[in-house]
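Subject: Interface between my chains keeps coming out wrong

I've been trying for a while to get a sensible model of this assembly. When I model each chain on its own everything looks fine, but I need the whole thing in one frame so I can look at the contacts. Pasting all components below, labels as-is. Any help appreciated, I'm running out of ideas.
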Amino acid sequence: MENLGYPVLSTVIFLPILGSLLMLLISRRQEGLIKWSALLTSILTFILSLPLFTGFDKTTHKMQFVEQKPWIPDWGIQYYVGVDGISVLFVLLSTLVTILCVLISWNSIQNKVKEFYISLLLIEGAMIGVFCSLDFFLFYIFWEAMLIPMYLIIGVWGGPRRVYAAIKFFLYTLVGSVLMLIGIIVLYMEAGTFNIMELAKVSFPITMQYWLFWAFFAAFAVKVPMFPVHTWLPDAHTEAPTAGSVVLAAILIKMGAYGFLRFSLPLFPDASKAMTPIMLTLSVIAIIYGGIVCLAQTDLKRLIAYSSVSHMGFVTLGIFALNAQGVEGGILQMINHGIVTGALFLCVGIVYDRTHSREIADYGGLATVMPVYAGFFMLFTLASIGLPGLNGFIGEFLIILGGFKAKKLAGIFAATGIIIGAAYMLWLYQRVFFNEVNEKIMHLEPMQMREFITLAALAIFVLWIGIYPNTFLSYMHVSVQHLLERVHYGLPDTMLAIKSVTGGL
Amino acid sequence: MQYYLLIPFLPLAAFVINITLGKKIIRKQAHWPSTLAVLGSLVVAVMVLMDVLAGKTLNEDLYTWIISDKFQVSVGFLLDQLTAVMLIVVTSVSFLVHVYSIGYMHDDPGYYRFYAYLSLFTFSMLMLVMANNFLQLYFGWEAVGLCSYLLIGFWYEKKSASDAGKKAFIVNRFGDFGFGLGVIMIFLTFGTLHYIPVFGDAGKFLNESVNILGLEVNLITLIALLLFCGAVGKSAQIPLHVWLPDAMEGPTPVSALIHAATMVTAGVFMVARCNPIFSLSPTAMGVVAVVGGVTALFAATIALVQNDIKRVVAYSTISQLGYMFLACGVGAYAAGIFHLYTHAYFKALLFLCAGSVMHAMGGELDMQKMGGLKKYMPVTYWTMLIASLSISGIPGLAGFFSKDEILFRAYAAGGVGKFAWLLGTVAALLTAFYSFRLIFLTFHGEFRGTEEQRHHLHESPKVMTIPLLILCVGAIASGWVGIPPLLGGGEHFSEFLAPVVGHPHGEATHAEEWMTMGISVAVALAGIIVAVVFYLKNPSIPVNLAKRFQFAYRVLWNKYYVDELYDLIIVRPTLFVAKNIIVGFTDGAIIEGIVNGLPRMVNRIGAQVRKVQNGLLQHYGAIMALGLFLILAILMIKYSG
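Reply #2:
Try treating it as a single job with all components included. I did that and got this:
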């Protein structure tokens, strides 16, 4: 695998960053060149990330495509990256979604074009870095690095209340991250390493696990976002430009759930197990609460943003079901949500570019005006409400199955989410696409090829995962199995590991 | 050879062709791919039936759909007697509806879209009946629901249509909520979702119970009732029947195919398919029988007073579906499926005739504005008359044999069955009455519409009337495969299905069989005679009755106010909570209050603290002195003791 001729992970992390640096050299007046170089960088990154898909060894839980170099040896800090079955798909999702974000911003970003694409590519690099880092120090740097360009994208290119939304987003996430930072420092002081793989072999005392669990929880719960720390999300999503909303929905909020899987469960297994009742309860509240809030929304983007709260509730429910179906369903649902909600935000962006309105009441009868667009929107709506044969169903079903297995009541409550989901999405669809044509949208121009391609790319995945999910599920099996063994049974060589660590101090 | 795969996948191919090329290229020829595909499916379905008749059944997986640890489920097909019957019903009715629609939908701008959806529906329905496991059943189940949604709201610019589609989908989701949990319970109990091992092992769990919300519930009963929730939604039984009458907003061929002959019978099919589970639970069976019986009667009473021609037929459908559940509930699954099969023909015929009438009347639905159409549209009249005789249960016609079989089996089963029989018999009286009320109001007497409408009255084109004639043959003769031994028949239909659904229980003498048969024929004739008196001889009677029993009339006219009730107890409270409590209070006041309040508080504290750093050196000096004094004081206190 390492014989591919280039270090795959470093390439996909740093190529976008390099691309954005090179773009600094381009004159801001050459907007065409800027757009094209952003597009080419993102496409090249995507192509170079494909070996992760084709060359991945599905039979081992060990980290693959590993690169490990000493960085700050005095503190044992390493440049240490690698992927396993839990993270690999997110890297691919990130590289794919970035291309679509570049495409969808083509005409809708009019001012400070250069800075916009630089920010976008910086986010890409940092996001991928988060998913690959196996050293806490490195991880934290990427984690925080992502915030700044995202903050700019919302605050500079966003809607009318963009500054409020951007600051809210920034503060919310920062508060959570600081607590995680304290957690990381405690871990370092206790075990003497930032190496995540080593840390995952240590058994920490249970009280300490509790404290650390909650410290990390603060960072991850805000990102997911879990109830009740979700209120940054509707503002950020709504005010962000389309590409910003898509990145937020598709990748950024996945990091919270990913954090639970990569850190909370393996590092603090006993605490995680003990906290499942709380986590399941919060998840179920998010599912139902998020869904009901959607029923009262009058703003297209805000409605879809709140639906993310509900869908991410499914994800955390699956993760803390702590069984194979739940966790695999949770990971798949993260991918699904990225594809479907990303697509829905793209869709909203397409009409927003034409009407500059997000009010649902300003639409109506759109199916007559833009039939192809209506078809895509219908497909993504159906995927979002979990129609079998489309991707959303596979994830939701596995999660409800896993949740039911873990705690019957959780499964039952989660299943009510599918009723509420159908209600708000179909109602949205009706108000926008059906009924008599609203005069305001009578003369909208049809979809362009560029927009068509963006949506079609995601539609393919909606169908692919729905019809043959095993392509994607098969990446997860061994890693998830390994993770669950760690949570439920600990490691056989745990005692040895503790000795070697304490001996080393 | 897996030639049977053509059955579902031909219509799927037609869907793909029409949805991608229909708008720009195929346009007015869109009926070709779809109709040819379903004709192909019909031919292959007949071949499958021949194979099954020859004793060849099949159960095989196409590929593994989902794998997650021990949860593994396939896309696979089970071809047995029950599937074969369903395949014939679905493909034959579907084919005729495809042909009929060539005439009916002729001028519609969404012609290609209509045929694309019809093909998608046919594919989904076929996947549903051919599934060999519960998850694929669920796939088909939801997919037919989607097509129903799309086709009810086909004329989406009309708000009533888009409302009705949405309502159908959401109401069905309530049922699917239970159905989905049932599927999950099945997996957790049996470790698989494939029919054959699940049905084989069902007996082992007979006495297991499971704790739900602190209640000990029999496991098998729970699973059966959860599955039945799905059936109640899909087959429009009480209390989830409210979507079906509204579904009449869709084009009439859709009502015939989806909301009469095929999709709505999926619930009955599912219960019959799961008979090894249901039969183990007397409680669940009792529930099925009572829900079926009560729905049969309930819907029939509403049909008595409605004036919308399609709604009468819609309530009639709900009522007839009730009969089918009634049969399943007393263990006579074969009788239920028999009625499903005959009903498909005579009910599709009733709908298509109603469509033919609408076609002539320029879309008019109110029977009070019709009358005397007999002479203008003889083919429609005679075929609809025969369908009505069939549904009323006049001896010799299809509906007679199947309905009589159900009522007799209910009676013979005893217990709950006797009660169900009573409900069914009363409903049979009403069925005959409202069916002939429809015929008389529409085709007899004087024309009551506008002059313009009268001017346009005409028989429908051949492409529509020929399907009517073919269905008419079905409405007459489809029952002949199930003539009871009492009348010299061989009960071939139930014998054919016996390997899948077994034989019904309960014993009854020939005398009793004659009796139930006699009673059902008597009530059918009585219903027709009353209709003759009311609507041909003396039309003032129903008017006076409506005046005299105003309260009862109004309750029936408003369908027992069930829609209003749901609006009051479900829709409004949910929206109220969403708008005022959650968005306004919890999310707005509390959470956002804290989130925005904290920085404000920090700000305020900061403003106070800032006063300390005011740049006045005297203040700094004073504070330093104070601090020094305090430190010294503390140290002195500490060390002096």
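Reply #3:
Confirming on my end. Chain B touches chain A through 52 residues (CB under 8 Å).
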